[in-house]
Amino acid sequence: RARRGRDDLRVIVTSATLDVERFAAYFNDCPVVSVPGRLHDVDIYHSKTKQVMTAHGPSTNAYVQDAVSLVLKLHRTQQA
């Protein structure tokens, strides 16, 4: 609908996990440009706070504060 009045409209989608063939097929075999990326080491940090999960996600909002606290701690202590 938006494209009817805008022939110059272009959309760029980036994702490390996108199923490119399925995405392109859904959009009438739209053109795809693949740009290889780089791999980066990933460190995993686990919260010491127990999170109770329900069918709708965490039972409290404490996980948000815990995540923010961990991010700030990492930001202060890790080298750039």
The value of Rg in angstroms is 20 Å
Number of helices: 2
Low-confidence stretches: none
Main β-sheet: number of strands, strand sense, barrel status?
Answer: 2 strands, antiparallel
Order of helices and strands: HEEH
Which strand order spans the largest sheet, edge to edge or round the barrel? 1-2
| Broad shape | elongated
Helix/strand-derived category reads mainly alpha
Mean pLDDT: 81
N-C termini distance? 44 Å
- Portion in beta strands: 5-15%
User: What is the count of β-strands?
Assistant: 2
Helix content: 25-40%
Please write out the topology.
Blueprint: H1 20-26, E1 53-54, E2 57-58, H2 62-77
Describe the protein.
It is a single chain. Helices cover 29% and strands 5% of the residues. The protein is mainly alpha-helical. Strands 1-2 form a two-stranded antiparallel ribbon. A hairpin with a 2-residue loop joins strand 1 (53-54) and strand 2 (57-58). The protein starts with 19 loop residues before the first helix and ends with a helix. The model has no long low-confidence stretch (mean pLDDT 81).
Please supply descriptive tags for the structure shown above.
elongated, 80 residues, single chain, mainly alpha
Summarize this structure briefly.
The chain is mainly alpha-helical. It contains 2 helices and 2 strands.
